[in-house]
Structures
1.
Amino acid sequence: MLAGDRAPIQARLTVGGTAHRMPATLELALYRIAQEALRNVEKHAGATRAGVRLDFKGPEIRLTVTDNGQGFEVPSLTTLVGAGRLGLLGIQERARLVGGRCSIRSAQGKGTRVQATVPAAAAPG
Ligand SMILES: Nc1ncnc2c1ncn2[C@@H]1O[C@H](COP(=O)(O)OP(=O)(O)OP(=O)(O)O)[C@@H](O)[C@H]1O
Ligand SMILES: [Mg+2]
């Protein structure tokens, strides 16, 4: 559960595939992505449930954070920069820096899904 002013959020972690250690840079990137996504769930979603899923898919690892909250219209990168909102930008940047990609899907009333897919062997640099 996440602490907060409102009702507690039930959080569930699921691991798919064969879990294995990963390069430290990758581990940190995925950790930070999950941390910010969960922080957003706590701050903005009004959700009662959050899910964190880590899938080991051979050459790729995929992290998915979902919530059943109110959802939102995903702003353009330019809008986020202009508004000084750095969380979603940071998520995308962290995924990119380890050679991966990121998708943010949300719809009003339908919750949010933040997903990062990264190569299991972190890209150099
Ligand atoms: N899980 C979510 N549910 C509902 N709205 C969300 C969710 N995640 C993000 N948002 C919306 O997207 C906006 C941008 O999120 P972002 O993390 O970039 O900025 P922030 O959380 O407002 O500020 P910061 O992360 O810089 O402290 C939020 O202000 C919020 O309106
Ligand atoms: Mg944020």
2.
Amino acid sequence: MIGEALALKRWLSQSRLPAAGVQALRDRKLRAVIRHAYDNVPYYRALFRAAGLSPADIRTAGDLPRIPVTTKDDLRAAGVAAITAAGIDLAACAVLHTTGTTGAPFAIHLTRGELQARRLIEFRALLAIGFRPRDRLTVLGPMQPHAARLHQRLGFYRSVNISPALAPGDQIDQLKRSRPTILWAYPTVLRALLGRLDDRLDTVACPRVIVTSAEVCDDALKARIQRGRSIPTFNFYAANEVGRIAAECTAHEGLHVNEDHVILECLRPDGAGGAGDRGEAVVTSLDARAQPFIRYRLGDGFGFTGKPCSCGSPFPLIGAPAGRPGDVVTLPSGNVLSLQPLSFLLRSMNGLDQYRIVQESTEHLVVELVFRIDPGTGALARLRAGLIEALGEPVGVDVRRVDALHDDAPKFRSFVSRLPVGSGAHRRSGGARAALESPARGGLA
Ligand SMILES: [Zn+2]
């Protein structure tokens, strides 16, 4: 407990360094992680050697582009032994699972110290938005129960997790009982609950602050949560691979990248890009030792604002990340299409609670919809016509109204591909990039 308190103090003081101090710390941690990966992780040693690099070549974040980008498929293909560090007891590690568009699980190993660092960075982000000792935090969305820590058993910084695997009625009961002052919710889970509650969140919980993460929280959902009241809402951004990447502060001018924990790069297909330009997220963890992630492609679309925040934090600001372009529909021609134009059409449906797009084959999409109010006559036919137009190739689209969506995966996904692994859906083609560059195509923007 004392060790953890000291570690928290260190993380907090790092977030108050001047920008130059943060950069010096970041580069020092980068050199250490590069040296460690080269010496102990076969995958990275081979990668650096193939690129003609030695650890001494990477001195600062500015040198990172010399290292080739790694994808989840690269790491999965290399195998656990090649991507984890020699001398790490994997059996003693915590394991997180993530799935990509393929649905194939990928394991991430974390030492106890790495887990603690993640927890403390999370805690730092919560403190920054006003988490107080007597607050009650309810996290709506993760599958794992919260392990109560000593200070929480004593009644400080209490938090509970509510699993989306519970029946909606049980989720609502737990939400009521937990009486959150801070509600941290995964948007798809919250959206489904709001549907059950007639959009009256205040009938079961009256948090003073709402945090959203894990998925994109659109303005329509924000408006539904608020219902005319003004509850401060904060967007947090993380990935299972590296933990918390960025979090919004009370100035609401963007999300601050935890630059003492990760280096986030904005990769544009043409290699160019200045402030404000959007590109794909590539991340390097400065704290992962058991299983390093160096220039790892996350794929979320985002951009740096290029402006300092009025809150005075030394951490750089990014705009809210958009969905992952890894979620793409593969068309009969082999081209791929970003989901954004499709989800844009779906989100504009009146009374829609939740949706899922299932790609059964390159010629066949099924769209399942849960409505809380009747969408009106002809609405589904119009939606279908809009989807077909947005797809732009001969794809059959079934639009189905269902009572509820069920999912066996640990995290609900609004897009499911049943295409065989290794088919065009899982390769990044020029088409995916074209779709990323013009996310609003589809004729409605
Ligand atoms: Zn700020």
